[in-house]
Amino acid sequence: MLRDYLKNNRREVLAIAFFLLAFVAYLSTHPRGVSTYVLTIWANQATVLALVAMAQFFAVVVRGLDLSVGAVMALSNTLASHVVTGSGGEVAGGSILVLAVATGCGLINGAIIVYGRIQPIVATLATGSVFTGIALLLRPTPGGDIDATLADAMTYDVAGVPTALILLGGILLAIHIPFRRTGLGVAMYAIGSNEAGAVQSGVRVDATRLTAYAAAGLFAGLAGSFVGYVTFSGDANIGPSYTLNSLAAVVLGGVLLRGGAGTLLGAVVGAFILRTISALMFFSGLPPLAQPFFEGLILAIAIALGGADVFRLRNKLEVLER
Amino acid sequence: MTATQLETDMSPPDRRGAAFKDMLSRLAKSAGLALVVGLLIFVFVNWADGFTGKFNLFNLTRNLSVAAVVGFGMMVVLALGHMNLALGSTALASVMIMGWVMKVAALPVPVAVGCGLAVGTFLGLINGWLIVKTKLHSFIITLATASMFLGAVLIVFRAGPISDLPREFTGISKTRYFGWVSGMLLITAVTGVVLGVMYKFTTLGRQMLATGANADAAELSGIPVNRAILIAHGLSGFLAALAGVMFTARQGSALLSTGEDWLLASFLAPLLGGTLLAGGYVSVLGAFLGAMLVGILQNGLVLIGVPDFWVEFVLGLTLLATVSLDRLREVISARRGN
């Protein structure tokens, strides 16, 4: 039973083991030791990337790609810096508006890809630059304000546990566990692994793919909002690094870029690994400039391991197809 | 009888007719884009103050020549159905090493430029080699190598940019013809012609296109697919380095921000020009016209006084409109039964 579970989820298990190793190394080298403060700072950074990685997961699982997640993040972040202030009602309404706009961005991506039949890479590269344009329009220079009560509630801790982690845990419980058991989740995996087969089995391919991209938009919106909670401001230039890191995170978390495999949990763990490593490097005396190099190296190693995995599969043909 | 009929059906004039038609449709494709570029020039000449100023045109052609080479760099891998996300980092690594050789090692300018181009080619070959060996998608390989190249450069060149490059080098970007055409346009033109000839007339070029059209079929037909992939990625690295060298000549220093924002532009030029993302078809002239469209649009919009964010917005919409039109044309021609 356990053996089967480990075998079926080996990519996630490997990723989690690697993350724990890195995390322990991080906590033990941190000059201020293990404390809620240290943990909270780490959790806030990791959560932003984890949310973008989840966004990317939805696009990747349907054999797609979303190069606009960073731009949607920037757009929702700058929008939040305008509307998430004022009275309690205004803050709630503003937060919902931000997520609605982000989901709308995702829907636009999905519609272009599904009905326009344009490759996801080109479509989202184009919409990404449109969204960035709007974000720059909203905030030509970083600034604005985010309601401090909400921001503090999101970025501090509850009884020693960072709120950000509780939030992530809640999302995972609500989505990750039932995901494979719902028709929608199964449909997404089916489209990702064999689209023709999914059509034959009566999966509503267009609607499912549209939902996946809308979910990608929603999670990018959550990530953008969270950046606002941490920084109390809006910045239109936060996007580009997150787009590439989200892809690295899903790959590290065992989500295959050819679609149809991997889990939301894997995407989150991948994001945790990336952030922990950058935090580790920050304290280990290596020049911070070296960070991209090591991030790339780790990504390369993860790819290599994923590649080694391919050769153990019986049916190599489909996997090797480019 | 049937045999004769078959022979008549396959007769050369028909084939020549088909080839002629094919050529016409290719030209028509570029003609559409050329028309749009012409229209844009007409609009900006009449409504954008200072567009026809000699210095503005010089600057425009200078930017354009760099952008076109960046586009060529992506085009040569798109021909395979591949991508090169490491284009910017490759250019960065090349120009930093070139700058070091020129300024710190104080070797002659041609040697330094040669070193830069060699570094670019080498990094491109690394990409190609990894893709061939791992059989993984170029997207993910170059995503990883992009951050590795960038990181390595940032570690090695911690001290920052290398400025005050010799005048002998920066002079490349200062030559003008007729008072307004940048001399660098000549480099771009030569590069474009060489690439055009390669795809049209050389075995290597045809092999690359065949690999892009259908790698399996190409392999089965005896085409050295892996060699084509390796060389195409090496070429992409070379072109990235060339674009970097031109960019650096314009800036006067080897900057750490080189190639930072090349991604959208590198896709825009070839895709606007009709190069297929799926591989198997390229248009060198199209990529040049695509770069022209982007360059003129950016330049003109700024002159009209349109704020920066609209420029980004318009570029995104342009890319979207182009691919949508392409898609529409496919659908229409499919309905006609072509």
CATH topology of chain A: ABC transporter involved in vitamin B12 uptake, BtuC
The profile of the biggest β sheet of chain A is: 2 strands, antiparallel
Seen as an oligomer or otherwise, the chain set is: heterodimer
Distance between the termini of chain A: 34 Å
Reading off the top of the CATH hierarchy, the class of chain B is best stated as: Mainly Alpha
Helix content of chain A: over 70%
Low-confidence stretches of chain A: 310-322
Q: How many individual β-strands of chain A?
A: 2
Query: What is the residue-averaged pLDDT of chain B?
Result: 85
The number of helical runs of chain A is 15
Q: Name the helicity range of chain B.
A: over 70%
CATH architecture of chain A: Orthogonal Bundle
Radius of gyration of chain A: 19 Å
Largest interface: A-B, 47 and 45 residues
Q: Indicate the overall shape of chain B.
A: globular
In round numbers, the mean pLDDT of chain A is: 84
* Strand neighbour order, sheet with most strands of chain B: 1-2
CATH structural class of chain A: Mainly Alpha
Number of domains of chain B: 1
Please report the total strand number of chain B as a whole number: 2
Subcellular location (chain A): Cell membrane
InterPro entries (chain A): ABC_transp_permease (IPR001851)
GO molecular function (chain A): transmembrane transporter activity
Protein name (chain A): Sugar ABC transporter permease
Describe the 3D structure.
The complex is a heterodimer of chains A (322) and B (338). With 322 residues, chain A is mainly alpha-helical. Chain A has one domain: ABC transporter involved in vitamin B12 uptake, BtuC, CATH 1.10.3470. Chain A is 75% helix and 1% strand. Chain A has 15 helices and two strands. In chain A, strand 1 (157-158) and strand 2 form a beta hairpin. Chain A is globular, with a radius of gyration of 19 Å. With 338 residues, chain B is mostly helical. Chain B is built from 14 helices and two strands, in the order H-H-H-H-H-H-H-E-E-H-H-H-H-H-H-H. In chain B, strand 1 (176-177) and strand 2 (181-182) form a beta hairpin. The longest helix of chain B is centred in the first third of the chain and has 36 residues, at 12-47. Residues 1-13 of chain B have low confidence and may be disordered. At the A-B interface, helix 6, helix 12 and helix 14 of A face helix 6, helix 12 and helix 14 of B. Chain B: GO terms for molecular function: transmembrane transporter activity. Chain B: It is a multi-pass membrane protein.
